[in-house]
Structures are given as structure tokens and as C-alpha cells.
Amino acid sequence: MSTNTSRTQLSINKINESHKILRVALISRSLLISLITLWRSLLSPYDTSAILNPNCLSSDSYTSSKLPIWPKIGSAIEGSIVWDGVYFIRIAQCGYEYEQTYAFFPLLPIFIYILSRTVFAPLVPIIGYRAVLGLSGYFINNVAFLLSAVYFYRLSVIILKDSKTAFRASMLFCFNPASIFYSSIYTESLYSLFSLGGIYHLLSGGNTIAVLLFALSGAARSNGVLNAGYICFQAIHRSYDAIVQKKRIGLAVMTLIDGALRSLCIFAPFVTFQAYGYHNLCRGLVSDEMRPWCKARVPFLGVGFLKYFQLKQLPNFLLASPILSLALCSIAHYVKSRPEIVFSLDFRASDKEKNLAAILYPSGVKGRLNDIQVSANFSSEVLKENPTLKQRKKMGKERTLSSSLDTIPSENDEVVPAKSDYASISVLPFVLHLAFMSTTAFFVMHVQVATRFLSSSPPLYWFSSYLMASYGRCAYVIWAYSAAYILLGSLLFSNFYPFT
User: Fold this and answer.
1) Which whole number is the average pLDDT over 485-492?
2) Structural domain includes residue 473
3) Tens digits of per-residue pLDDT, 189-215?
4) GO molecular-function annotation terms (predicted)?
5) Is 194 in contact with 224 (CB distance < 8 Å)?
6) Local confidence band at 301 (pLDDT 50, 70, 90 cut-offs)
7) Domain count, the chain
8) Can you give the pTM of this predicted structure?
9) pLDDT value, residue 358
10) Minimal CB count within 10 Å: which of 103, 206, 455, 490?
């Protein structure tokens, strides 16, 4: 009876905390949309060509030739479609017509196309088809952000084992410096939803749905395929333990094969889209007519290694410097705190610490972490199975339930300290992922996109939350940085001025 009551309480706590962060996320999106509307009404856009929309190269019978009932509203929505949003809307309406459109992955246009022809289809005669496409894009991305914020919080509770730190980090995510892109027709929201959701389900033992979500993240943005690294990290460590501890080579081989197959599924949408582009743009052409990338054995994304290091690009490096500095500090702090874990890639971690590593063992006591995910307050579940902690409970009734977050029983019923800060062993895969992305953004890509490129990386917010808790003055700097970029981004980006 007590077991059912405890599980019910955990579920209630999970729902309550999720509702809190959902409200914060909703407030942040309302703020962004209000700022966009304000700046659009006060300032004239730098480029007013957003409303221009030539006919599709192929016939589009769905587009009505009749004037909409409310043309001003439709024109206002069309005018708000700027920068990459123009391409996503064009692809949703006309498909991939030109070579440059293949730089934009198909998931967002597909979702926009479906929504515009189903749920929002009755609005076409009222505001026009292109305005409906734009409205669909805004709706999809803002709803996706709300869901990604919930996933971010639940993931943070699993990794940090501290509901307060997780909530603070989630608030930072809701008001992150790249917020304008999460409320515009860009892929940041969908990518974050499927990446964070995939990691959450991976840690919860839902391997199938995790692979599906990771694959969708790869269909939204090219760097979504990097999420296969979490699968590989888990598979390699499990196979290592199978050989070293269990002496079962067969199990190790099967684990590696399973990880490889799941990784291939994650890469499938990315490879399929590349093949689709190659088929449309390269097949049937003689060598002299082919674009250089058609002849390349391996496609190369970005501008090239160090090719962006030019004096005229200094303003762009300055624009990206805050996020890159934060990423560097978060990585350096983790390496300094856990050098033995980082340089051994976790292979030299003690068995006690591995029992606490959610990324390695999503189920078992390795599986009691399934209960941790629903709430930071999971001590009652631990007490039921561990007599040592049960006795300690009787001796100190005045202790709050949340205080037991500092300990977890190991397989030998020993009480093991559970790191609830940024130095947790479970943070390692996320730090490695952030290090790779930061290096790529700085040395290979257009560096000004680093702010939005790195904005969905959890360690940035976990480390910031740690700084805010440890050093009070850092809170002012971090919030000032986020507020400045939100105001600057909503002002410049929405009026077609360059911003990241």
C-alpha cells in the first residue's frame, strides 16, 4: 500500500514541477512574441522584400487566386517571415526548387505543410495561403519550445539530482540568449525538442522512442546526427563492463552491434536527404556541369577550417564571444573538477560512481534512476529497499526527504555520495558533446551562429546554474547577458537586421 502511495506522490510531484516550468516557458514565449510585435510596429524593416513571393516553378493548385478577406493581417504575418524563415516557407509551399534550398533540412517544412493543409486550412481564404504557412511555422516552433523546456527540466533532475538546481537551469533555458530563434521560423525549437526528448527517454530506458527522436533531430538539423554519440557512449561502456566485470565477450559483441544498429537508424534521415539532393542536382550531368560538391567523396559543411579567421569578421567573433566563453569555462571547470574521468573517458570510474551514472545505466539500481527522473524527492523509494538508510530515517525524522538526494545505495548496500552538482559523472557525455560543437562553431562555421548553435546544450545552463548558486554576483551577469541578447535579438532580427 505504501509503495503505491509513494509512487503516486512521485507522479504528482513530477506533474507539478512540469507545470511550473511549462508556465515559465509560456511566459518567455509570450514576452518574445510581444517584443517582436512591438519592434515591428515601431520600426521599419531594413528589407521589405519578405512579402514578395513569386509563383512556384511547378504549379501549386492549392494556392487561391482570390484575395483574402483580411489582407492586412495576412500581409503582417508574411512581412514577419525573415531570414531563413523565407526558405522554410518557400520549401513548404513549393518544395526544393533551387540548389541553395538544400541547405535547409526537410522536417520543419514538412510539419508546416501538414499543419497548413489540415488544422489551419480554414484560414487560407481569410489571410491567404502563405500567411497560413507562416502562422503554422510560428505555432509549431513555439509549441515545440514549451515541450522542450519540460524535457529539459526532467533531464536536468535526472542528471543533477537536485530539483532546485534543475529548475534554475530550466529557467535560464527558457530565457536563453538565442530565444528569438525559438519563437521564429527556425529549426532550434524542433531540434531541442527531439534532442532533449531523446536523451530523456534514453536515460529512462525507452531506447526505441529515444532512437526515433534522435533520428527526427537529424531530419531537423544536420548536427542532430551527433546525438548518436550518446548511444555509442552507452554501448561502448556497457560492452567494456561486460568484458572486464562479467567476462562475457558474447554480450559485449551484441551490445556493440545493438549500438551500431541504433546509430545507423539515427543517421538514416540525414543520409536519405543527402542522397535526395544528390539525385536531384547531380545525377545525369557531365563532369563539367557538376557543382564541386557533387564530385566530393565526403560532403563538407561550413566555410572550412580557419577560413573565417579574417579581420573583417572581428565583429562576428565579438558577437559570439559570450556564448563561446561560457562554453569554454563550463568545459574547463568540468575537466578541472574531474580530470580522471575526462581523460579516461569514464573507463576508470569506480563501480560506485558508475552506479550513479544515468547515461550508462538507465534501468536497474542502476535502474532506480527511473524513479529519480520523476522528482528530485525520491528518498522514500530508496528507503524501502535499503535497511541502512531506513534505520537512519528512524534516527533522524526531522530531516527533510530531499536531503536523501545526497546518498544512493550501491549494489552492496553501501551508502555512496551522490554528486548533485555540475561535477557529476553523468555530465561527461554532455560536456564532450559541447566541446565538439564549440570547436566546430569556432574553427569551421560562420562563428556568429554559435549563439543559437550551442543554445540547446544542457551543460551551458547547468554550469550557469552552478555559478549562480556558488557566486551570487554571477547571477546578475548571466541574466544581464540573456536579457541583452533577447532585447537585441528581437529588435534586430525581427526587422531584418543581422543578428547571429
Assistant:
1) 94
2) yes
3) 999 999 999 999 999 989 999 999 999
4) alpha-1,6-mannosyltransferase activity; GPI mannosyltransferase activity
5) yes
6) very low
7) 1
8) 0.85
9) 64
10) 103
DSSP 466: H
441 located within any domain: yes
Within 8 A by CB and 6+ apart from 252, the residues are 238, 239, 240, 242, 243
Residue 312 in grid coordinates: 573583417
Spatial distance between the Cα atoms of 370 and 213, rounded to a whole number of angstroms: 19
The residues that bridge with 415 in the sheet, in sequence order, are: 409
Report the greatest alpha carbon distance in the chain.
82
- Domain limits at 331? 1-7+14-46+68-294+303-362+420-495
Name the amino acid, one letter, at 174: C
Residue 437 belongs to some domain of the structure: yes
Split at pLDDT 50, 70, 90, the class of 65 is low
Angle at 147 between CA 499 and CA 80, to 5 degrees: 35
Cell of 326: 561560457
Establish if 41 belongs to a structural domain.
Answer: yes
What angle in degrees, to the nearest 10, is found between the helix axes of 2-42 and 472-494? 50
Residue corresponding to grid cell 551514472: 357
What's the gap between Cα 448 and its chain centre? 19
Q: What is the mean pLDDT of the chain?
A: 82
pLDDT higher at 219 or 423:
219
Q: 418 and 393 in contact (C-beta within 8 Å)?
A: no
Closest CA to 179 of 486, 487, 491, 500: 486
Amino acid 14: pLDDT: 63
Tell me how far apart the alpha carbons of residues 144 and 108 are, in angstroms, rounded to a whole number. 11
The tens digit of pLDDT for each residue in 96-126 reads 988 889 989 999 999 999 999 999 999 999 9
Question: Hey, which of 284-288, 297-301, 368-372, 406-410 has the most confident mean pLDDT?
Answer: 284-288
- DSSP element (H, E) containing 38: helix 2-42
Q: Which stretches does DSSP call E strand in 48-112?
A: none
Residue 392 carries which side chain, given as an amino acid letter?
A: R
Confidence band for 310, pLDDT divided at 50, 70 and 90:
confident
CB contact set of 224 (below 8 Å; sequence gap of 6+): 191, 194, 195, 214, 216, 217, 218, 266, 270
